[in-house]
Design brief:
The complex is a heterodimer of chains A (about 80) and B (about 210). By secondary structure, chain A is α+β, with helices and mostly antiparallel strands. Chain A contains 1 helix and 6 strands, in the order ββαββββ. The chains are: A alpha+beta (about 80), B alpha+beta (about 210). β6 of chain A pairs antiparallel with β4 of chain B.
Amino acid sequence: MRLLRMKPGHGEVVIAEGDVEVPAQEQELVEAFRAQLDAGMWAAVPTTGSGGRREAELVRSFEEVPRDAERVIFFPRAAGGGC
Amino acid sequence: MILALSACVVVVVALLWEVIAPQLALWRSRRRAGRRRVGSVVEYDPGRERRAEQRARNLVRSCVNDEEWAMYRDLGFLRVWGRCARGPGDGEGESRRGAPYAYLIYPHKPIIAFVPQTGQLLSEYCVEFPDLDRPYGSARLPDSDDVLAKWMALTGDERRLIASANMHLPGRQVDPVAVRRDLWRLGRWEQARLQREQTDAGSVSA
């Protein structure tokens, strides 16, 4: 599983990477995940539904992330725009 | 004698001050300018921005399906079907009878809600994803990251995103004529795609 974060002026960067079946690596992923949520990020897991439909699942904790997810994408939380 | 020496010292100091003062002022202003340059200004690098946008486009491509990617590549926006039974932001569950409305997602513009069957524009939702860390002096995500963030938030938790947005009537920020033209372009694009698929299917079966 890879944790990615969108960044202005850069695109996505890899925050952490590891195998959730390996306890030490899972712990690193959990800590990195919490750090991003504490920094005010939203977390989304891209998924493929029935019939090949693509969508995303917003997750609020690491426990909500499917174990077989390949990546979690963090992006700044939405704010009402000044437009 | 002492008086004469004192007068000489005063004259020498005054003359030296005339020479040194401009140098001191110049040194001070350079120091201030140097501090400002190092501390707060990050120079704009168009190459970096292009690379960031390219990365963001690749990420969009890896997340959406082929049709959505082709739509974004060809038309510059994405359409996402709404899921709430009674319209955008409705809290009474998801629609089971097909999508009564949809959204258009543009980079760094409001999300537009509309009725697909009639083309009627419903509302604009102004929403941003500002990164307060400002890694390169700007809080603004690359265009395609902004589109992907809206897409993920809409498909993942539509009500949460709509609740975070500022809602306005159509036409406040985005020209309704331009949106209707985009809906027309989308219709033509879908027809052409359908025809292409039918042609391909026919040639394969024959």
